[in-house]
């Protein structure tokens, strides 16, 4: 080969490669995006350990230093000040974001305007809150915080009909992860007493599986208004089990259920739903729950579904897999898209080594409601399990899993989660405990059989118990 030809080939091959500068720029962009994702993750936690606090401040400071005009970096800097009750500094940064035309008209400028609106409302200036919230919605019609502030301010100032028009427009284009907006619209229709519109709205939501929890929550509110507490509780229970964790209406249903269950009248003659849920929550009382659930036949569809759910959970706690499977299948007969039943049956099949059927059920649940709390939790754990005498062995584990981030690795054996000894449970119940574990303390055996302990981050900070 001649030197000329060799030189031409080398030049040709080099011309097809990105420059070192371009590679460095790409790596820098990737690192920056990864840092912002980490900041967003930390900001969603209700509680941060000392190391996480320091990490958040370090990341935000570094991002602002690299580009002082980046609205994301500025927003998280303000958020950090706000979290530490440095309101004046947070407010100054939010104002700088919305006043600068080069940074305005962006998602994070919309967030900043929404925070200013919330601040104005908290200080009693409803008119000022409306001004900021409308600016936020103009930049991002699906800004949930801004829409909620607009609604709250409108309740003080009047103008709910105009507010209904604004929220209706936002609801029409909302994405699956923005379900708070149609939920807000439904509640507003109830406040306005537009009952024909409420009926049509409920029908529309129930035709879309991922929106069904919204309808359940609103039907629960209507049942409360009509003096039907048992039906209202059942509907709140289903909304909290089926809905996306991050939505305010799901959290309200979750809080209502928790408050009523914790305050249940513990009496042998009490067949209320809160008491039956309380009985079904522990192996020691699961037998009483089964007896109570079999003693009556509910009249409403929601109550019938809750009855099968609690029967299944009670049988699981007693290690009665066949009975639990039958109850979950009956739940699916009542509501074929009932995601908690699909995920529970997925766990049962996985514990029995039937991975093909488990995968099929998991895929079905994911298609129906990818944003539901139980599906997201199942996905986020990123773990494959195997039952062993001491608990469950981790067969495979994704690096993104909170289990991996807590120091667990494939080959280790989980022996206890949140003080519940896994080795004492029937295998399918062990899988169910692991799959529904939201976060907290764990005990395990490492690959050499040495005991270890640790803490797993809460998947859904809004459900994290207070310390």
Structural features, described:
Keywords: Repeat, TPR repeat. This is Tetratricopeptide repeat protein. The protein has 467 residues and is α+β, with helices and mostly antiparallel strands. The chain has four domains: 26-158, Serine Threonine Protein Phosphatase 5, Tetratricopeptide repeat (Alpha Horseshoe); 167-260; 263-330, no CATH class; 369-467, Roll (Pdz3 Domain), CATH 2.30.42. It contains 23 helices and six strands. Strands 1, 2, 3, 4, 5 and 6 form a six-stranded antiparallel sheet that branches. Strand 5 (440-445) and strand 6 form a beta hairpin. Helix 2 (20-43) runs parallel beside helix 4, helix 6 packs antiparallel against helix 7 (126-139) and helix 10 (180-192) runs antiparallel to helix 11. The longest helix is centred in the first third of the chain and has 24 residues, at 20-43. The radius of gyration is 26 Å and the shape is globular. Residues 1-25 and 461-467 have low confidence and may be disordered.
In short:
This is Tetratricopeptide repeat protein. By secondary structure, the protein is α+β, with helices and mostly antiparallel strands.
């Amino acid at each position: 080969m001649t030197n000329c030809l060799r030189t031409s080939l080398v030049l040709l091959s080099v011309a097809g490669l990105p420059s070192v500068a371009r590679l460095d720029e790409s790596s820098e962009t990737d690192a920056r995006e990864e840092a912002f994702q980490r900041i967003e993750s930390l900001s969603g936690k209700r509680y941060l350990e000392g190391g996480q606090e320091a990490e958040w401040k370090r990341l935000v400071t570094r991002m602002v230093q690299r580009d002082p005009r980046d609205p994301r970096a500025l927003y998280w800097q303000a958020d950090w000040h706000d979290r530490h009750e440095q309101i004046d500094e947070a407010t100054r940064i939010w104002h700088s974001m919305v006043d600068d035309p080069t940074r305005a008209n962006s998602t994070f400028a919309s967030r900043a305007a929404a925070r200013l609106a919330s601040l104005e409302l908290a200080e009693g200036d409803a008119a000022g809150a409306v001004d900021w919230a409308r600016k936020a919605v103009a930049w991002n019609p699906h800004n949930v915080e801004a829409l909620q502030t607009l609604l709250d301010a409108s309740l003080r100032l009047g103008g709910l009909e105009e507010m209904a028009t604004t929220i209706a427009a936002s609801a029409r284009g909302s994405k699956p992860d923005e379900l708070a907006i149609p939920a807000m619209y439904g509640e507003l229709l109830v406040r306005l007493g537009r009952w024909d519109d409420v009926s049509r709205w409920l029908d529309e939501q129930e035709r879309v599986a991922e929106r069904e929890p919204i309808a359940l929550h609103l039907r629960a509110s209507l049942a409360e208004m009509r003096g039907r507490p048992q039906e209202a509780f059942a509907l709140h229970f289903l909304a909290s089990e089926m809905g996306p964790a991050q939505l305010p209406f799901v959290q309200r249903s979750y809080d209502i259920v928790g408050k009523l269950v914790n305050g249940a009248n513990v009496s042998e003659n009490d067949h209320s739903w809160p008491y039956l849920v309380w009985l079904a929550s522990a192996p020691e009382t699961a037998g009483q729950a089964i007896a109570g659930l079999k003693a009556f036949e509910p009249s409403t569809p929601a109550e019938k579904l809750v009855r099968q759910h609690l029967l299944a959970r009670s049988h699981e706690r007693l290690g009665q897999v066949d009975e639990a499977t039958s109850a979950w299948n009956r739940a699916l007969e009542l509501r074929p898209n009932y995601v908690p039943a699909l995920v529970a049956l997925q766990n049962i099949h996985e514990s029995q080594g039937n991975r093909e059927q488990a995968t099929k059920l998991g895929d079905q649940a994911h298609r129906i409601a990818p944003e539901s709390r139980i599906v997201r939790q199942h996905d986020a754990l990123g773990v494959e399990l195997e039952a062993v005498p001491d608990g469950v062995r981790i067969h495979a584990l994704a690096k993104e899993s909170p289990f991996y981030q807590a120091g667990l690795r494939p080959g280790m054996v989980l022996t206890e989660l949140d003080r519940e000894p896994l080795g004492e449970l029937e295998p399918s119940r062990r899988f169910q405990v692991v799959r529904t574990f939201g976060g907290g303390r764990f005990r395990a055996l490492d690959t050499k059989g040495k005991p270890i302990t640790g803490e797993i981050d809460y998947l859904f900070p809004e459900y994290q118990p207070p310390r």
